[in-house]
Amino acid sequence: MRLPNRISDTVEKLASKKSRLFVTVLALMVFLFISAMVIAVVQIPKNHKRTVVIPTAERYVQTRELLAPAESSLTEDHYFSRIPEDKWTQEETDRYFTLPDESGLEKLRNSNKEIIDSIIGAAP
Predict the structure, then answer these.
(1) Which end of the chain, N or C, is more open, meaning fewer C-beta atoms within 10 Å of its C-beta?
(2) The whole model's pTM is what?
(3) CA 81/CA 92 separation, integer angstroms
(4) In this predicted model, which residue has the larger pLDDT, 115 or 17?
(5) What is the pLDDT of residues 64-82, one digit of tens each?
(6) Residue 11 contacts by C-beta under 8 Å, 6 or more apart in sequence?
(7) Per-residue exposure over 26-59, b if at least 16 CB sit within 10 Å of its own CB, e if not
């Protein structure tokens, strides 16, 4: 009988010293904690065996012919398949290739030198 008396004395002291709001919030938190514990115990599965299902590989069988997208949305530079050429034609060279100017070469030279210096560091 000592434990229930101690608990009731403690609750009475809390109620007399603290406001009712504090006691209400404390009681609500205790209720939520107990409810969470009960829910956790109920949710634990009773059988702890795990079954592993290994899917079997199925061979793909094509039933219909694949449909290519409509070509109207493609640009002139897009081809479904093409044979790559060994050399550019003069027209491709004029269209895609530009000679670098001296400032571009200087920037490239400096950036490469910085990269090399960061890799080599203080090596002799």
Answers:
(1) C
(2) 0.28
(3) 18
(4) 115
(5) 888 876 666 656 666 566 6
(6) 23
(7) eeeeeeeeeeeeeeeeeeeeeeeeeeeeeeeeee
